[in-house]
Amino acid sequence: MEYLVVSAVAVLISALTLFSGFGLGTVLMPAFALFFPVPVAVAATAAVHFANNIFKVFLVGRKADWQVVARFAIPGAIAALIGAALLGFFAGISPLHSYLFGGREHDVTVVKLAIGLLIVGFSLFELLPRFGALAFDRKYLPLGGLLSGFFGGLSGNQGALRSAFLIKAGLEKEAFIGTGAVSAAIVDIARLLVYGLNFYTSTIAGLEDIRGLVLAAMLAAFLGTFIGTRLIKKITLHMVQLIVGIMLVMIGLGMAAGLL
Fold it and tell me: From the CB of residue 93, how many other CB atoms can be counted at a distance below 10 Å?
């Protein structure tokens, strides 16, 4: 059953995240956590997330706008180092509120609440017609990279902020997807360097018991990403913006409420 659930989630979400630029790690981790302890689920998800980002770069990276990548991903990688280094400090702050839902305890933390509300705010630029004509000038790309990278290093949630800035940067559809994939991979490398062995040595042993499932999830994610690339030419930029906006709202509210 775990192979079916995790693989199905990986296929579906990886196809959607090719367009939205985020969502795989956020949704896949709870799927792993249904069957395994949370630390093992986090480590397994990280392995799948990084591998899928590299695969996306291989498939769509050639479409990236490298000027945007340089102005966005380099500040993002530097900020990710800082955010990852501060993770331990902020993790020690007591939750603002805790509650039970679906048989599990959920915590509303300062970090999740702030990021969630910020994400919902950005989603308004995608979903409300009055904001449809607005666009972030490219001079704000370094700021977007700093915010995305910092929160990515701090909480692992970088994709929603990254997409919120890139979707309004005047990129064509394929360039948006390719630029997001390359930027995500660069920031992933930076934050994983800081997490390093201190994080993974405490959880990697648990991965030995689910190596087959992790491999299956990777292959399923690759399949979903490949399917997504076949649909690129059939998806309009407006539809991409709509997908991004809806996922921004869902992820933002879920984080603010402590569900994610």
Answer: 10
